[in-house]
Amino acid sequence: MDNVIRRRTPGARMLRTGLYVLLMVMALVYLLPLVVMLLTSLKPLEEIRAGGLLSLPDSLTFSAWLKAWGSACTGTRCEGLSGYFMNSVSIVVPAVAISTLMGALNGYALTKWRFRGANLCFALLLFGCFIPFQVVLMPMAQTLGWLGLASSTSGLVLVHVVYGIAFTTLFFRNYYVSIPDEMISAAKLDGAGFFRVFWRILLPISGPIITVSVIWQFTQIWNDFLFGVAFAGFGSQPVTVALNNLVNTSTGVKEYNVDMAGALIAALPTLVVYVVAGKYFVRGLTAGSVKG
Amino acid sequence: MSQTDSPLPRSRAKAGRHSLSGSLERVLPRLVVAPSLAVALFFVYGYMLWTFILSLTDSGMLPQYDFIGFAQYTRLFANERWNVAATNLVVFGGLFIILCLFLGLVLAILLDQRIRQEGALRTIYLYPMALSLIVTGVVWRWILNPGLGIQSLVRSWGFEDFTFDWLVNPDMAIYALVIAAVWQASGFVMALFLAGLRSIDDSLFKAAALDGASLPKVYWRIVIPCLRPVVFSAVMILAHIAIKSFDLVMALTGGGPGYATDLPATFMYTYTFTRGEIGLGSASAIMMLCGVLAILVPYLYSELRGNKHG
Fold it and tell me: Taking CB atoms and an 8 Å limit, are B36 and A140 in contact across chains?
């Protein structure tokens, strides 16, 4: 490839410029929705109605952000997204922690203590990655009702843990499988038990895969809409459901700037994670897919 | 006396403790996996069976168990709205997969030419994947809305007759969904292809260049065939995303205009939770599962066969 590209003939140089232009144009296309979202959220409503999707705001205002956060109407209630944002936080934190821990222990037990049927166990667990969740909605709604967890954030934590284990187990299993068994058998000979080996040997080198698993689960659960809309009550709806209600609330004037500010509020946590730890985000996507 | 006696019982006790802890150690791995397995057996396999059973009943607002055989499936296939939803899935899924593959491959090949700022560009192409589909739907609904979105923007540039009303046009709304979905997922496909390209040996390029093959020819004849496994898994993931798409439809079109953009996922939700037809909704859920299995089984089969050969 070097030979082909380092030839600096005028033609090659022109080709190269074209390449960069093309890539930049594509980047602009991908960025456009985010830019539009941001610009619209910072404009007063009159300016939006005047048109000019891409024009810079004449008078910059943060009132749409304040309203989306604190007083916009989602359905019949007008308290903004803040409460729902906190609901999402209180669903995501325990669900991510529990599913990652269980995935780590599963992956460890399935690879380093190979018992009879370990592969069958893994195959059975893995299938959970593939089912369309529509097939579990109705039974889950009934089960949550019986458990007294219907319309509660704890119910949603349970749901996300249950259907997250398949992915976290996959991540940790694929990671631990590549760690040489000699390290573990030496520790076993020294008399270290199941949890001690895990704690002393595997956990210290699990940093990257824990990051992958946490980011994956965080993104999945934060962005979830289906479970939220099917199982949450008024007091426990996650921010995605509230955002959808906010946008579809038809009473009064349509406030596009508030809609866009709301969308940005709902998107911000996962965007920040992506920008800060994009490398691990991509690894999660590909680990969950290519090696699947 | 006691001193000479004591070693024996103590060692025996120690041995006893050892074997006890030994057998505990032996079952511990199973014990650790057991809860997850139990969870999967109940919440995945049990629920699949449960939904299947519900699909054989005439459950309405509430689940009940008067069996009526496969009547719900007969009703489902005769249901105009289901047929629209199923057709939409084929159109939406087909276009979504083809466009994502094409854009992903092109972007990956372009990015693979030792581009400066490659990291930044990659980040930009991929960021939509981190967003919730609800956010994607809300944004595109704003951009595609004919009143104040792209249509009005282009008209304001002087093209008074420009129309871009796909969102509110029943014949075109499904393509509006495709645009938003491709925007969201094509960067991901790019990442997959890029990883695939990076794993191809550089010497391949050099050898081909020495033979006088032009760069496009090298890609077309040599590189793209090498990427076949990536194409395979990308198709599999994209198809899976398409079948499960629910959030995007809810946020972008709400299934409308009318039910022009219904997909099986929204059909299932509407009938089960808002129209009180649990039996019919369950039948549609089982059909979705069959759709996923139809993609998954050949995929897993070829993966396993590939492993055996390789």
Answer: no
Q: What is the 3-state secondary structure (H, E, C) of A31-66?
A: HHHHHHHHHHHCCCHHHHHCCCCCCCCCCCCCHHHH
Q: Which CATH number describes the domain made up of A82-287?
A: 1.10.3720.10
pLDDT surpassing 80 at residue B234: yes
- Confidence grade of residue B8 (pLDDT, cut at 50, 70, 90): very low
The whole-angstrom distance between A27's CA and the closest CA on chain B is 6
Q: Which residues of B touch A3 (CB under 8 A)?
A: 206, 209
Q: Into which CATH architecture does domain B77-309 fall?
A: Orthogonal Bundle (1.10)
3-class secondary structure, B67:
strand
Per the rule left: phi > 0, alpha: psi between -120 and 50, beta: everything else, B213 is: beta
The closest of B68, B248, B79 to B173, measured between CA atoms, is B248
Q: What mean pLDDT is predicted for residues A91-111?
A: 95
Which is higher by pLDDT, A85 or B3? A85
Most confident range, picked from B106-120, B250-264, B272-286: B272-286
Which among B19, B106, B135 is the top mutation candidate for probing chain A, defined by the most A β-carbons within 10 Å of its own β-carbon? Answer: B135
Crossing angle of helices B278-309 and B47-55, rounded to 10°: 130
B295 touches chain A (CB under 8 A): no
- Count how many pairs of residues, chain A against chain B, have C-beta atoms within 8 Å: 267
pLDDT digits (tens, 9 = 90+) for A78-88: 888 989 999 99
Residues 94-113 (A) with a CB less than 8 A from some CB of B = 102, 105-106, 108-110, 113
Q: Which two tokens stand for residue B190?
A: 């790019």
Q: Where are the domains of chain B?
A: 2-55, 77-309
CB B43 within 8 A of CB A136: yes
Distance CA A166, CA A42 (A): 41
Its pTM stands at 0.87
Return the percentage of chain A with pLDDT > 90, whole number. Answer: 43
Contact (CB<8Å) A1/B206: yes
Per cent of chain B over pLDDT 90 is 42
Spans of all domains in chain A:
2-61, 82-287
Q: Which residues of B touch A256 (CB under 8 A)?
A: 142, 148
Is B15's Cβ below 8 Å from some Cβ in A?
A: no
Q: Which of A29, A30, A116 to mutate: most B Cβ within 10 Å? A: A30
| Cβ-contact A206, A104 below 8 angstroms | yes
- DSSP summary character for residue A178: T
Give Cα separations from A249 to A77, A242, A256, B123, B255 (angstroms): 10, 10, 12, 34, 16
- At residue B8, what are phi and psi to the nearest 5 degrees? -65, -55
- Which pLDDT value is given to residue A117? 86
Q: Is A115 exposed, middle or buried (0-12, 13-18, 19+ CB in 10 A)?
A: middle
Q: Answer whether B209 touches A (CB < 8 Å).
A: yes
| Closest Cβ–Cβ partner in B37, B126, B244 for A132 | B244
Query: A5-63 pLDDT, tens per residue?
Result: 455 678 878 888 888 999 999 999 999 999 999 999 998 888 888 777 888 888 888 88
